[in-house]
Amino acid sequence: MRRALALALALCCVLAPVALGAPASRPTDGAPVGSAAPQPATDTTSFLRASSGSIETAAHRDAAIDVSGTLAIETTRLDGRFRRQVLDERFSATDSVAARRERIEAVATRIDARIATLTERQATTVTAYNNGSLSGHEFLRDLARIDATAARIEASVGRLAELADQSSIAGLPADSWARNRALRLDPLRGPVRTRIASALRGENTVPVDDDLPSGVAAVGTAREERLAPLLVYVETTPDGVVLATVDDEQYYREAYLPGERNATGDGVGNATDVRDRRAALYPWAENNSEFKSQRTVQRAGISRFRFSHDHGRLTAYLDQDSGEVFAEHQRKTLSRLPTAAPVNTSDESRRLVVNRTHPSGPMEVSLTSESGTPLDGTVRIGNRSIGDTGRDGRLWTVAPRGNVTITARVNGSTMRIETSAAVANRTRLATPVSP
Questions:
Q1: Span 257-334: which CATH code?
Q2: Ramachandran region, residue 333 (left: φ > 0; alpha: ψ -120 to 50; beta: rest)
Q3: Per-residue model confidence as pLDDT tens digits over 77-135
Q4: In 27, 107, 146, 223, which residue has its Cα 20 to 30 A from 244's Cα atom?
């Protein structure tokens, strides 16, 4: 019954007319025009941020249940499995070592072509969204499909490296060739896109009953299940995209700014240079991470480093020629995040509190009575409704750039706070979100 309900709602979404999303006006937050180096943040990780002068659009968008989008993603995955099976069968049917080598090289050439095509497809998708040819929902749907396609190609890369065994591919050792291609594909994937795909399928992203098979997600009408849209904050540049969302008490953010690969700057020539650059760009993560790793692939011109810290995880991709980070993935646990000193307002019976971090970062809205009793109210940022505070009187969302107006409406009464999401210091830990 639940699956039928979800499918029916999805069909309504598909058949309903979709209004094209006109590009949002450029926000101005006083940030300098120029390089998009990671921005420092007190007591937490830095984050890769596009400069204000490069922003084309900035808006909250919905990823809603979508049958056609889900079918496209699943078709992409099935196509990948089929390609790998065909590769295995043809490889097994070939006895000649020379013929196997020829087949491996031919498949490697096709993989390189698919990576180049997918990279161009993302650029085309961003351009179409920027000029209004794609609505917000269509844009998110297409990014999720690009993510699935990148995963499909990466699986083919891994399988081809296995078939090549200890020999070479395209003049490189098989494992080096595979790492090179994986690093080129990683920026086309991300944790937000994964959650967009789940929202398109109508699936929740929280663990389900232990007696269900691994990977199965429930669909239904309960609060924690995914029938409501997933709210995603989207920023775009002429060729790049930043996505951020809050889901299941976690904050996810991904940024891909390919223009930074063409930026002028001092390159990094060896592992020591990369490590020094890593520490300069992400000082808090460098000093507060329990686990750190670094991988450099010279042929790809990319260095990837990862941090595992008390707030969550961070993965960044550094262009060796420019010395700039051009892609980044982050996950943080909301209850562990430091926030700035709260801004608040109150009347005779209610109190509205906003806890900020940084633009495109998590922001908590709390609504209570003067005695501290949680209130369930509807929250808006500007003219956009972003959700309800619920029984615990709290709502985590993503803060846009610049000055924002947060409005909460409860029992027919409205409260409003005007503030800036751009804050320099974090002074306290956020209050844990109630289960």
A1: 3.10.450
A2: beta
A3: 777 777 788 777 877 777 788 888 888 899 999 999 999 999 999 999 999 999 999 99
A4: 223
pLDDT in tens, 229-248: 899 999 999 999 999 999 98
The residues spanned by each domain of the chain are 2-30+49-236, 257-334, 338-429
Does domain 338-429 fall under CATH 3.40.30? My reply is no
The encoded tokens of residue 63 equal 């990823």
